Amino acid sequence: MLYFAYGSNMATQRLAARVPARFVTTALLPTYRLAFHQRGSDGSGSGKCDIVPALAQSAVYGVIWEMAFHHKPTLDRYERLGAAYNDTWLTVTDLAIDRQFEVQAYIGNLTALGLRTYT
After folding, report:
1. pLDDT at 38 (0 to 100)
2. Which of 26, 62, 67, 101 would disulfide-bridge 6, Cβ 3.0–4.6 Å?
């Protein structure tokens, strides 16, 4: 399966500590923007990264990873699927080769105003 990562899961070491995955390419998600309004569970009070629909000229850059589907439940636990994030299918584009990919991604559902970004 193909997974679109933005934020900290773009880092090879971070994702590798969670699930085995192979880097495919970088990609662009049009008409979305990053937001740091996702309430975390680490007690820091910081806002975690999320993607939200935005204006047509907005876009989010991320990484496409390929992983075995049987590893998805493990990643779901790390992402707190159903509690903090929901998963969805999105279409992203590798601009270098002008190719579109159907990918899974996580979209936050614990938004809160006034959170600071993690430092």
Report:
1. 75
2. 62
